[in-house]
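Board work, copied verbatim: Aminomethyltransferase
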Amino acid sequence: MISQITKAEFYGAVMNQHPAITPPIDARTLAQSHFRTLRPGTPFQPRIDALALTNDWYNWAGYRAPHSLWDEELEYFAIRSQAALFDISPMTKYRIEGPDAEAYLDRVTLRDVTRLKPGRVHYTAWCDDEGFVLDDGTLFRLSSTRFRLCSQERHLPWLLDSAIGYEVSVEEETEAVAGLALQGPTSFAILRDAGFAGVERLKIFDLAEFAHDGGPQGNSQVTISRTGFTGDLGYELFVPADKALSLWDRLMAAGELCGIRAIGYTALNRARLEAGLIVANADFTTAEHAIRADRLRMPDEIGLGFMIDPEKGHFNGRRAILEARAERKLRHVLVGLEIEGNIPAEHAIVYYRKSQEVGLVSAAMWSPMAKRNIAIASLRRPYGDRIVDDLWVEIYAMRELQYQKLMKRAKVVPRPFIKLDRRTANPPADF
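↓ predict structure ↓
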C-alpha cells in the first residue's frame, strides 16, 4: 500500500535531493498551466484574432485555427454568394527540388508526374508498400526541377528516406510559407482589383507568380493557383511568412465591395462535402494512423482509383494495388448518399434491409445548394458497389428533449453533389 504524503512533504523531499531547484509554484497552477497556454498562431493570426467573435478554436497540426469566426451559417453562404478568405497556413508544405525531383515524385506518388507541366497543379496521393493510402494532397510544379507538395499530415522522415538514391532535396516549409484560400464567385474580381495583372489567364489547376508588397516584376513574391477545396471558383495564394499581413490587407481592401469575408473550417467543410471531396482521417484513416488492420484503405476503396495508370512505371504500392484489382481483393467502397428527409446523418450507421450493418457515414449535411440531404459513407463491398438498393441509415434526432431513432432510406448517388460551371469557366466570371 502506498503511503499518503502532503504536497509540502513531497516538495521537501525533492528539495532535499535537489537543493538548487527553485521552490515549485502551486500544484494547481502547475496542473492548469498547460491548458492555459495558447497554441501558436499562423502569420495571419493578428488579423484573424481581430475578427474572431465566436472564439471557437481547434487544433490544426499544432496551430490555433477557427471553427468559425462570426457565424458558421453565414460564413458558408459567403463562399457560395460572394468571397471567403480561409487561412491554410497550417497545411503541411514541402519544397522538393533538384535534377531528380520529377523522377522522385513519380516514384512516391500515384499520378504520373511526367505529365504535370511547369505552372500546373494536380491532386494526388501516396501509399505504403502494401498499397494503403498514407495521405492525399496537391502537387504544385513551380518549375522543371522545383515542386511544392501540400498535405494534411507530416511525412518528412518518410519523404527523406524515399529520396535516398535521388539527386533531390526535400525541406519542410510550413512555417516559412503562409497560405490563403480565396473562394467564391467574386474571388477573381477581388484578385483583379487587387492589382494581380494577368490572373484572368489562369485556368483551373494553373499557377503563376505575381509581384507583391513593392517587389519588382522580376522578384515575384506571391504564388497564385486556381485551386481550392470548395468546388467553386477559387484560388490559393502562397506568400513568404513576413509578407502575410500585407497580402491579407491587400485582399481585404480590394474585396470590400465584393463582399469578402474571413471564414473558419466549419463553413469550408460544408462546401467541400457538397463538392464531394474527402478529408484524410475523417473520411478515411491514413495508413500511419490506423490501429486496426481493417481500417486501412487502398486508393480504389476511397475513390482515388482514377489516379492510377497501370502503364506508369513503378511507384509505391503499385504491385499490391494492381494485384488487389486483378484478384478482386478490394473490401470497401466510398460512396455518395442521398438520404430522405432533412436531418443530417453524420456518423450514422448504414444498414442493408434495415438489419445488416454494412458501413458508416463520415460526413453529412443538408445542402442548401443541392437542396438534398447528402452524405459520404464507407461501405463494405459488395454494398455500395454491386448492391445499391434497400440501403438505410440510422439517425438519432432530438425531439422535445428526447432522442428518437429514425431509419431513413439512402440512395447511392454520384459525387460531386453539386457542380458549378463558374469553377472551370474561362475566363472566370466577373463582378
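Residues 143 and 235 are 19 Å apart (CA to CA).
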